[in-house]
Specification:
alpha+beta; five-stranded mixed β-sheet; globular; binds 2-(butylsulfanyl)adenosine
């Protein structure tokens, strides 16, 4: 029988493999520099890990290819110019990463620990402290006699950067902890270095990016980069504006303090010093305990307020940790067990426009499906035109997609590379892809919007709900569940269709009895008799709230006059500025919107028009300023306010000499006292209702 030739005793690497190893080394060095030194990676961590593992596996097969400066042998990172170097008395090590994201990763770690401790098979389970692996930046906090004297980054593990100024501003989140104390609580040791991670909470990150987007400024790729960038920001004033948090996970140099016998008790002691320690940690027994923790935290990952990229297992006993020791700068007693990455690379196949319920146009990336953050993602938001341009993404590019928590997936950037062919830059459509109305952008704003508010199918549900609202046409019973059914079931296509509905159609719907169907038809009928102000407000014109609608109605007195008013005439209305005037003009310029209004009038919607004379004088509360306080027996605060305003009155938030009267209910507090002190008249709900009793519905 023919056998394969025996393998050579020494593996001679083929030239192509040597070349690949050199290429990988160069790539890894470049990407490590982008990540650790500039806080601006070009590829996702998962891609870096893949390159790293490829090099590791080549080096394992061909040890001759492992150069002394191979990235696989070093803690990467260096001191950025501008920060003073800090030599760590106890080196800041990293931990081995178990990239097998299945429970197998935890089982393998426990087996390794037991083998290295030479435990017999029947020895009891090893106790581990299981923690979260926070995705931020490692920091060493040095406290002397309880005072924070220095904070340093990890740097290359031996030497880090002095970032004390910036770290002093880590305030955490009120009520959620995470603040770095400037002074330790209790009986502080002569010297204690506390190590942990500075990170940014997801909501803080989203809010910060949203602010940046609104200002049309650069956004951050992910919370980790935002946090790392803030810590290494040369201007502490800027760093102070970035919302950072901190969790401790270990110790550095210590003097004059007896460390507890376990890692878990050490963390308890650190917490007692007033330094934040994450509550999501547990002492667990053996492989089973690790697997359970990994699964439990994996299930909660999306709901956590911050990003984690895995969990960390540490042998709990310090004595056992010492027996296990280190290999090439990684402790044998700890491992990081990863979860599926929250960022991946994929191809951008197309950019489509989505029209939201409020008419906002969002460019959406159509992606080559990719598994990221635990699910397959094929659509991701690009936010707005300006974000898209700043990121420089074009169709055909390889892009980085991020999906973390329940935040919608987004394209955070493109992977640098040469495009094979010219691809034109993306443009916003001039017409709404749903209804063909004009697309507009408010001056100075970043969002594009469809101007076909009443007509556009994408905005239909929102428009109907707003139209039917209590302060608008007040159609009782026409809530979101019903609107969903009506629109999705094809019973109404445009807003005026709601007046076509009959009892039979409504009663056939889910959770609709004959009686409720009849009530709705009655409410629809009743709503037809309204006021110009309510009708105007009901149209949902951007920038036109209740107060503006009332001002417009009072000023013009008739709808046609408002529809035909030019900007100058609109500007004559009190409180109407150029942005509001423009918005009103644009709305009525759309033929579709005019069509909808004509149809509504044809259905019998009517109000009194008064030829433009201000009706204010005839209203009983006109010119009166009223303050509401306490809980009224039957009216909600909103209802009372609406009634007063409909009667021409104004509702103010605080009592002054100008207040006409105060309506007080139960548990009225300081406003009532103030009214009494100023001699302002105080009445109850009954008296208010009596004042309004003979009024026609305004
Ligand atoms: S322990 C000797 N615990 O992950 C052990 N590290 O390489 C030192 N990290 O850069 C690290 N969460 O910044 C430890 N609960 C945790 C951690 C954690 C995040 C980071 C750490 C380090 C990297 C590990």
């Amino acid at each position: 029988m023919q056998t394969d030739p025996a393998p050579a005793a020494v593996n001679i690497p083929p030239a192509s493999t040597a070349e690949r190893a050199a290429q990988l080394r160069a790539q890894l060095r470049h990407h490590a520099e982008r990540y650790y030194v500039h806080d601006a990676p070009e590829i996702p961590d998962a891609e870096y890990d893949r390159l790293f593992q490829e090099l590791q596996s080549i080096e394992a097969d061909f040890p001759a290819l492992r150069t002394a400066d191979s990235p696989t042998l070093r803690v990467i990172g260096r001191v950025l110019e501008g920060f003073a170097p800090v030599r760590h008395a106890v080196p800041m090590l990293s931990i081995r990463t178990e990239t097998d994201t299945t429970p197998g990763g935890a089982v393998a770690f426990d087996a390794r620990v037991r083998r290295e401790l030479e435990l017999p098979d029947d020895a009891p389970a090893v106790a581990y402290e299981a923690e979260l692996k926070f995705d931020g930046l490692a920091i060493n906090l040095r406290y002397e006699r309880g005072l924070l004297v220095q904070a340093a980054t990890r740097g290359d593990g031996e030497t880090g950067e002095d970032v004390t100024q910036n770290i002093r501003t880590v305030r955490g989140r009120h009520g959620a902890g995470g603040a770095i104390p400037l002074r330790l609580k209790g009986n502080a040791p002569a010297l204690i270095e506390i190590r942990g991670e500075v990170f940014m909470r997801r909501d803080d990150f989203e809010r910060m990016n949203e602010r940046q987007r609104e200002k049309g400024e650069k956004t951050f790729v992910n919370p980790r980069n935002a946090a790392a960038g803030a810590v290494r920001q040369l201007d502490p004033a800027i760093a102070a504006q970035r919302p950072l948090s901190f969790f401790a996970y270990g110790l550095g140099e210590v003097d004059g303090w007896q460390q507890p016998a376990t890692h878990s008790a050490t963390l308890d002691a650190i917490a007692a010093f007033g330094v934040p320690v994450c509550a999501d940690r547990a002492v667990v027994q053996g492989a089973q305990g690790l697997v359970a923790f990994h699964a439990q935290m994996g299930a909660r990952r999306d709901a956590l307020p911050f990003d984690i990229d895995g969990v960390v297992y540490k042998v709990d006993s310090i004595a056992l940790q010492q027996r296990l020791g280190f290999v090439t700068r990684e402790p044998r007693w700890a491992v990081a067990h990863k979860y599926p990455a929250q960022e991946q690379m994929t191809r951008l196949n197309a950019i489509e426009i989505q029209v939201g319920r409020t008419g906002k146009l969002t460019p959406v990336a159509k992606l080559e499906p990719v598994f990221v953050g635990g699910t397959t993602v094929s659509n991701a938001t690009l936010h707005n035109l300006f974000e898209l341009r700043r990121k420089g993404v074009r169709v055909g590019d390889t892009v980085i997609v991020r999906r973390a928590g329940d935040v919608i997936p987004e394209v955070v950037g493109r992977v640098p590379g040469v495009r094979a062919a010219y691809v034109p830059n993306f443009r916003m459509p001039r017409e709404c892809p749903v209804c063909a109305s004009r697309v507009l952008r408010e001056k100075g704003g970043v969002d594009h919007r469809c101007s076909g508010g009443l007509y556009c199918a994408a905005q239909r549900k929102q428009a109907i709900l707003h139209f039917a609202g209590r302060r608008a046409m007040d159609i009782e019973g026409l809530g979101d569940k019903l609107v969903d059914q009506l629109v999705d079931g094809g019973l109404i296509h445009t807003l005026p269709d709601i007046y076509k509905l009959d009892v039979g159609q409504l009663a056939a719907l889910d959770r609709m009895a004959d009686k409720s169907a009849r009530n709705i038809v009655e409410a629809l009928e009743k709503s037809k008799r309204t006021t110009l102000a309510r009708f105007l407000y009901a149209l949902g014109i951007r920038q036109v709230g209740e107060a503006t609608a009332r001002d417009l109605a009072r000023h013009f007195g008739a709808l046609d006059r408002i529809m035909d008013a030019d900007t100058e005439q609109l500007l004559e209305v009190p409180d109407v500025g150029p942005v509001v005037a423009q918005s009103i003009r644009t709305f009525f310029e759309q033929p579709h919107n005019r069509e909808v209004i004509a149809q509504l009038r044809a259905w019998g919607i009517r109000w009194d028009e008064d030829g433009g004379k201000a009706p204010a004088a005839q209203q009983p509360l006109s010119g009166r300023t009223i303050v509401l306080t306490g809980t009224l027996p039957t009216l909600t605060r909103d209802a009372a306010k609406a009634m007063i305003e409909d009667a021409g009155g104004k509702v103010a938030g605080s009592v002054s000499k100008k207040t006409s009267f105060v309506v007080a209910g139960d548990e009225a507090g300081s406003k009532l006292e103030k009214a009494r002190a100023l001699g302002v008249r105080v009445i109850g709900e009954a008296e208010l209702l009596a004042m309004l009793a003979d009024l026609p519905r305004a």
